[in-house]
Each structure stands twice: as structure tokens, then as C-alpha cells.
Give the backbone structure.
Amino acid sequence: MFTTFDRYLLKRYFHVFVIGFIATYGLYVVFDGFTNIDGFQAGAEKVSSNDLNGLEVEQNASTSLLWIMLEFYFYQSSLFFDMISPILSVLAGVVVFSLMVRHGELNPVLSAGIPTYRLAIPLAMATIIVNCVMCLNQEVIIPSIADKLQAERGDMASSAQFVEPVYDFSTRIMINGQEVFLTEQKMKNAEFVLSKPMVHDFVTVKSDTAIYQTPTQTRPGGWLLKQATPSYQELEIAEFAREIIQPGPEPNEIFIVTDVGCDQLCNRNFSSLISTSDLIARINNPSFSDLSIRKQKLDLHSRLTRPIMNLIAVLISIPFVLRKESRSLILNIAICACVMGGLFGISQCFIYMGSTKLISPDQAAWFPVITNGTLAAWFTNRVQT
């Protein structure tokens, strides 16, 4: 049951957390905005000078610049929150307890015989709430605005991304192109390299526009190549490959069956923009290489252990703040930063071993939880409070 003191502690915790987020994100916006001002200005000049439906846009360049920057950093705030929240969770707890110790607010509570660990309960609840918001942000908000998060500065209206060539290991087809449009699910200047024994000889099928069609109950997923060259009739396709390389609805169209979609042709190793269900689908996708699947598994287990690691980091910081001797706020933050840096280093060592196949991906993600959790329990007993 929450007491009045618990509610007071929670209120101060979230007060510090929100102020910390606004301050750090404000610094990021100022630094990034001035660094990339040329890109924003180019986009503002384009908006101001272009005609929309034959009508001159009446807003001036300065207003366009402000609006473009506000729109860009509004979407980027969700990605920044996902990155900075674990640090702010620890920092908010350290700041709140340091100020309460400095002002003597904890003396009546401790004098009443309330154990020190009881003070950790509202802090743990606050961390759990932050973790829930982080999960909501990761699973719902970020995937829904992924195209906006990948947009170039000054060009939020376009969902175009440069294509990273992908080799489909299930069909043995190399897929390449100039740009992929995530919203429209299409690719510009697409190239599909067909190899033996699917065709008589190596051949590159080119198309100005290729549209990805998701699988349905009646047909598999794949790319529909518009105005393909060479045409389907000109290809010498092996009999077994005709299920993969099929004629399109129109004479100059070719349909190529593959599980490689638009999102896998750009930032395919950047899994923070997709939900957990999409990440699992990538792991089960036979088109990916073993190395790529291993990395996706490591990302999946790291995502599952992240809330636990956040809670451990917060709990391990408490004994360094609630001490008999009074320390300055800066010193408390510095000590906790060193401790968190050590825990982060341990986690990165295991992740490195997982990426280099020294240990399995699940071991690489879960061993830091066991190690850091043990250290948290040890510090709690060793540090005098």
C-alpha cells in the first residue's frame, strides 16, 4: 500500500525525470539543428518556391524553416526517449535521494524505524512505469512512424531510402535498386540478378518501378516488376524456378516471389525501428543469412532483458546515495555514472562475445542480467547506509 511519503517520492521522481528529458532533448535539438541547418534551409526553400496544385505557397522561408524543424524533431523525440530513458531513470533516482539526504527529509523516516530498502519500493515502481512507457513507445509509436524517423532533414514528405543490396538465400536472387519508398512499398530502378540453375546464364532483370505485394491466401509475397527488361518470354527459366519467377498480369511485367520486403532493403540491421513481432518475423525469414539472423536474435533477447537491466541499474544506485555521510549531488552523480559505466561495459562484453559466436545470443543477453543482478545484491549488503 502506498503511503503519503511514497506518493511524494514518486511525484519528485517524475518531476526530475521530465525536466531531465526536456533539458537533454533541448540540448540535442540546438546542437543538431545548428549542425544540420543547411538541410533544413534547403527543404524550406523548396517548400516556399514550389507550386502546389498550381498555386504559389504563400508562407515565407523562415516560417517554413521553423515548421520543418518542429515537425522533424517532434518525431525524433520518440527515438530520443527510447535512447535516453534508461539513463534518466537512474539519474532521477540519484538526484531525488541526494536532495532528500541533503535537506534531511529522510531523517524522520529512518528514525521511525522504517528500513532503508523500503525506500526503494516507490523508486522501483517508478522505474516499472518508465519501462512500460518505453515498451509502448518501442512496440507501437516508433514502428508506426518509422518512415518519418528515417526521413532526411528538410524532406519529411518523402519516404525514400537508399537501397542496401540484399541476397535472398532462399531463392538465390540478388536484389538491388536505387531507392525504396517505404510508404508506397515500391522500389525505383530495381535490379534482380538471377543466377544458375534458375536460368540458363546469369541475367539481370531491370525495372524502373517494382512494387512489393504482401502475401495473401491465394499467392505468395514478392515483387511485381513493371516494364521489366528482359521480358518474361525472353528468359530461359528452369522448370523448378517457374514457381519463383512468374509472369505478371501485364505482358511486360514479371512477378518474383521473395520474402525480402521494403523494410529489409534499407537499415535491415537497425532493428530499433520495428516491433518485437516484426523482429521475430525477420528471425524466421529464410531469406536472411545466418549472420544476420544471429544479430536479430541478439537484438530480440537484448530487448527482452532491457527493462530488467533498467531496474537493476536503478536499484544498484541506491546504496551509493543513501549513506550516513553526506555527499554533494555532483559527487553522487559521478559515482553512479562510474558504476553504471562498469555495468554497461560488462553488458557490452557479453554482447561482443555473442556477436562473434563465442556464446549464443540468448546467453549474451541474459548473462549480464545475472551478473549485474548479483553485483547489485552484493553492493546492497556491502555499502554502509
Remarks:
- Residues 164-265 form one domain.
- Residues 51-58 have pLDDT under 50 and may be disordered.
